[in-house]
Amino acid sequence: MNDIFMNIINPPPDQPLLLIVDDDRVTRLVLRQEMEQAGYAVVEATNGEEGFAAYQRCAPEVVLLDAVMPVMDGFTCCQLLRQLPAGDRIPILIITSLEDTASVDLAFAAGATDYITKPIHWAVLRQRVLRITQVFRAEAEILRALEQEKALNDMKSRFISMASHEFRNPLCNVLASAELLERFSHKFTEEKRIGHLQKIQAAVQKMTQLLDEILEISKAEAGKIELNPVSLDLVSFCQNLIEETQAIAGNNYQLSFVTESSNIKTSIDIDLLEKILNNLISNAIKYSPQGGKITLELACQPEKIIFSIQDEGIGIPEKDLPQLFNTFHRGSNVRNISGTGLGLAIVKNCVNLCGGEITVKSAVGVGSKFTVTLPLSQGLLTIAKPKI
């Protein structure tokens, strides 16, 4: 493979990349000069086998294949290219000195987009390559638009399904309690009236929270959230967060905080950190059985802080993991557990804004562990080990 990848480049987006596969060095040189003058970036290979490998490596927009070559001819290479993912759409033009009808039929049977015979008429070659390049780019643009439209429609459908479900129940509670108060308030005890008012307040709070989450996603996607780092003791912050959450959860769950340091002071955006940890801990509680253990662990390594949230919940099916942080996506095993599919999308956006990363390990019926790694871009101020 002496000539393969001899001139692999990364052309600008508006410059098409063309692969020339020909065993004759002079022919390759002339083809290269002609096509570079026509505005193409060029990669060369000396036979079909090298050309097949070059295509997989470089993903050119157009392929010029000589028909007769050693090791692997152009017809065979064309057939193999058509079997690759998206290979059915790549423009392939076979160049042949064989002018008989059988050879032309063989070229098209192999999957060639077009052909041209030797001696090459350069103006004809340039026009044919230009034409098939334009068609290929137009088709690719249409496919991208269709994929974006499909993704948008899927998201709209998920949003409508989620919103109709998540808003319906609290709205029904509001209407029911309001109607009862309107009709029978004079018969209710003070305690019962307060109970119905509390139901209305809880329903309104739930809908307000949902709207806040949707606005949070919209702001993040529009790039309207700014970082506001301040000095913070992460150990105290995590301890307080776990204590407050435990007080709300009561004896239904066992929450704990683990760290090897007595204090870790750094500069970080408190609002984003709260959103990250609150969402992950809330999810851990939501998908854990009563009595389940949820552990928040904090560790510090050179130039980074690591938060881990481990639960003993229902776990996440492997097939759901790739879409886990997508907006409105929920695991296929959540059954009747209510949720919007926004929490993890918010977490992912917050982590990205902080320049960090989030990973998850999970097993169905065993539990999940989310790990958030944030860089110390603002500089670590203090780390203190606990006294022994």
Uncertain residue ranges = 1-8
Question: What is the average of the pLDDT values?
Answer: 81
Assign the structural class, choosing from mainly alpha, mainly beta, alpha/beta, alpha+beta, or little secondary structure.
Answer: alpha/beta
Shape field: elongated
Question: Would you give an account of this structure?
Answer:
With 388 residues, the chain is an alpha/beta fold. The chain has 9 helices and 13 strands. The longest helix is centred in the middle third of the chain and has 63 residues, at 122-184. Residues 1-8 have low confidence and may be disordered.
Topology:
Blueprint: E1 17-21, H1 25-37, E2 41-45, H2 48-58, E3 62-66, H3 74-82, E4 92-96, H4 101-109, E5 114-117, H5 122-184, H6 190-221, E6 230-233, H7 234-249, E7 254-259, E8 263-268, H8 270-286, E9 293-301, E10 304-310, H9 343-353, E11 357-363, E12 367-375, E13 380-384
Parallel strand pairs: 1-2, 1-3, 3-4, 4-5, 7-9
Antiparallel strand pairs: 6-8, 8-13, 9-10, 10-12, 11-12
